[in-house]
């Protein structure tokens, strides 16, 4: 992967200390307790930059920004940056002067959080480098596999989609509703309301008026007519018949009117 032409800053720490370290006595690693921690050789700020795949640890003056030392890091963890065995705030850094000479110095942070940020910044950068390398390999393997399959539509090309489920649903809906019926179908599980047919003697569409029946009178009403007599239309007195009854001839028994007979 070709290196990019710009340099990005990935971490800045305002205060770090630099120590002279003795040669490594064993292969177990460096110990910060062997350094003179109360007498740092230099103090300043640290700035970590990235250019392409390489990260650069730069030790600079706090005020002027003058470069004190620089350590290019091509791999982490690796020989360029090592952690000590007895503390998480101190590291051994391999610095270079650009002429092929290098030296190992001790670098320490005042705060434990600063050392954590330093560690995470380097890890994230090289994680990105690995991902870029994998993507580049996949792109190369795809190009070597052959021409890509073109699944796009050509000019003027069309497709036809047959959706059968919609037609089936429409058929079911039309069957469930009988044509020409003015009544809604009965609810599921319910009984439909029937229409009472006309009597067989009647023609369809014709309704005969009911036949009036004469009022029935009981035998007691015939024998004993207790209803009052209807008033005369002439307006005469109800006793007019009695008053107008003919006088009996001499020697004849007077006749009783019919309306008082029992």
Strand order of the largest sheet: 4-3-2-1-7-6-5
Strand content: 15-25%
Distance between the termini: 143 Å
- The general outline is elongated
Rg, please? 62 Å
Derived from helix and strand composition plus strand pairing, the structural class reads: alpha+beta
Order of helices and strands: EEEEEEEHHHH
Q: Would you kindly provide a written description of the structure presented here, covering whatever features stand out?
A:
With about 260 residues, the protein is an alpha+beta fold. The protein has 4 helices and 7 strands. This is Adaptin ear-binding coat-associated protein 2. It is found in: Cytoplasmic vesicle, Clathrin-coated vesicle membrane. Keywords: Endocytosis, Protein transport, Transport.
Break the fold down into its secondary structure elements and pairings.
Elements: E1 8-19, E2 42-51, E3 54-60, E4 67-73, E5 81-83, E6 90-96, E7 102-109, H1 112-145, H2 164-176, H3 219-223, H4 240-243
Antiparallel strand pairs: 1-2, 1-7, 2-3, 3-4, 5-6, 6-7
């Amino acid at each position: 992967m070709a290196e990019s032409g710009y340099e990005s800053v990935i971490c800045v720490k305002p205060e770090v200390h630099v120590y002279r370290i003795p040669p490594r006595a064993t292969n177990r690693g460096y110990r910060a307790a062997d350094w003179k921690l109360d007498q740092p050789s230099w103090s300043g700020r640290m700035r970590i930059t990235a250019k392409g795949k390489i990260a650069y640890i730069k030790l600079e003056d706090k005020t002027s920004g003058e470069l004190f030392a620089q350590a290019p890091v091509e791999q982490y963890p690796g020989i360029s940056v090592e952690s000590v065995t007895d503390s998480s705030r101190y590291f051994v850094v391999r610095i270079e002067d650009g002429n092929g000479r290098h030296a190992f110095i001790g670098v320490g942070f005042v705060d434990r959080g600063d050392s954590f940020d330093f560690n995470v910044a380097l890890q994230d950068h090289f994680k990105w480098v690995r991902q870029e390398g994998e993507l580049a390999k996949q792109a190369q393997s795809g190009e070597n596999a052959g021409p890509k399959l073109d699944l796009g539509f050509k000019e003027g090309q069309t497709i036809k989609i047959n959706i059968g489920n919609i037609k089936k649903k429409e058929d079911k809906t039309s069957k469930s509703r009988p044509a020409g019926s003015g009544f809604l179908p009965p609810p599921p599980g319910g009984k439909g309301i029937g229409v009472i047919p006309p009597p067989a003697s009647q023609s369809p569409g014709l309704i005969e008026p009911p036949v009036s029946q004469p009022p029935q009178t009981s035998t007691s009403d015939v024998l004993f007519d207790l209803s009052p007599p209807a008033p005369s239309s002439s307006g005469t007195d109800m006793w007019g018949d009695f008053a107008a009854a003919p006088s009996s001839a001499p020697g004849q028994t007077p006749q009783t009117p019919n309306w008082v007979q029992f």
